[in-house]
Amino acid sequence: MQAAEAVRRAVADGKELVSVEFNLPLIGATDLDDWPGGVRQQYQAIAPMVGELLKSIGTNEKADVTQRVVEDADAVVVLTTEGAQAMVFPTAETLPELKSLAGKSKKSGALAVVNSQIRTNNDGSNLISDLGIGPWKKKNEEFLAQFEMVYWLSEQRIQGETVRLLKSYQQPWQLYVLTEMTADSEPECVQTFDERPSYQELEKLLMSREGSVAAMSIIDRVKREAQFNATSVSSKPNNIDMD
Predict the structure, then answer these.
(1) Per-residue pLDDT of the chain (243 residues; tens, 9 = 90+)
(2) Number of H-type helices and E-type strands within the chain
(3) DSSP summary character for residue 25
(4) Cα 137 to chain center, whole Å?
(5) CA-based diameter of the chain, in Å?
(6) How far, in Å, CA of 42 to CA of 46, rounded?
(7) Alpha helices (H) along the chain
(8) Please, what sign has the CA dihedral across residues 103, 79, 18, 126?
(9) Which pTM value belongs to this model?
(10) To the nearest 10°, the Cα dihedral for 160, 19, 24, 74?
(11) CA within 20 to 30 Å of 98's CA: 109, 196, 204, 210, which one?
């Protein structure tokens, strides 16, 4: 619902090409691997979310959502309903298909890329870009730049802290700390950003917060992390029966 609201605001501003990043609920997790089935298992988790998103932003909430597999091994799938469509897990190899969809977006409605698997080095990392080199890279970058990042929700652990990073269209990036959150409390927004913060920026911010887990000594943090890992192993995975 939150992502759908963000997409609707963007579409109302004339954005037909949008980008969405979902934090996936774990299904079929084991003690050793959150995703033993790999990206195909991740697709089982994300497909219902994307289906509901498309129904909410399309022109007919009661219309069916169809699925067309573009690349089976990487679980690249196009989901379509009346007035909206999405490509899930797009890769560099499936860019031609994405470009084709984008060329038809004015007739078929909003087009979303969801949880893109295309690696770039525009974030300052050492990753090699998937977009090629020279003029080919530039053209691909210009094409992908047309997709407005309208919604992002990710969760990670940094220096013993469990945090979520949220971006919703027309709002700044927001950092939430969930470490000490209980069932009766709300996650705390500790900082907002105009641009997506890097891991190093988040780490520095968390370690500067007085009384936070990240500000603990290394020894205390290692003890706490060991306790967290022991609790995680003893807890049952958050599995969902897909049968």
Answers:
(1) 999 999 999 999 999 999 999 999 989 888 788 898 999 999 999 999 999 999 999 999 999 999 999 999 999 999 999 999 999 999 999 999 999 999 987 777 899 999 999 987 655 444 566 776 677 788 988 999 999 999 999 999 888 888 999 999 999 999 999 876 666 678 889 899 999 999 999 999 998 887 777 776 666 656 655 665 566 555 554 444 433
(2) 7, 9
(3) P
(4) 23
(5) 59
(6) 6
(7) 2-12, 38-57, 95-103, 105-108, 134-144, 199-207, 218-234
(8) negative
(9) 0.82
(10) -110
(11) 196
Token pair recorded at residue 148: 């407005």
Q: Which residues contact 2 (CB under 8 A, 6 or more apart)?
A: 151, 153, 168
Q: Give Cα 44 distance to the centre of its chain.
A: 15
Amino acid at residue number 238:
N
Chain position carrying tokens 């936070």: 212
Report the chain's terminal Cα–Cα distance, integer Å: 25
- Is 43 within 8 Å of 77 (Cβ atoms)? yes
Strand (E) positions, 27-104? 66-71, 76-81, 84-88
66 - beta bridge partners? 80
125-130 own/partner pairs: CB under 8 Å, 24+ apart: 130/91, 130/92
